[in-house]
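FOLDING PROBLEM:
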Amino acid sequence: MDKVFIEALEVEALIGIYDWERRIRQPLLFDVEMSFDNRIPAASDAIEDTLNYKAVSKRLVEYVSQSDFGLVETLAERVAAIILDEFGVQHVRLKLSKPGAVRGARAVGVIIERSRA
């Protein structure tokens, strides 16, 4: 299966379990790989046949910037569900990074893979 990807999508969000984290917005980075058959849009050369990565990005920014979760694990699950449910994707691999969360590490986070049931 082909992949459509979004790399290093940065979104400011309220995320974390500590009191100080509940008072500030922090940058999160999303790397998303979505399984999608690109043969139809390749043949038609029509944007309406594609998995529109701009539309996916816009939806994720909208959702994440309004979210208020304690755990990146919870946010990653919700974002994966949005991609699967709203964009007709069969499989998604999502990496959610929280830069600067651990001293000495560029970022920490989770990588999940989910498929349609």
Summary: The CA atoms of residues 103 and 109 lie 14 Å apart. The chain has a mean pLDDT of 95. The chain has three helices and five strands. Helices lie at 39-44, 53-66, 72-87.
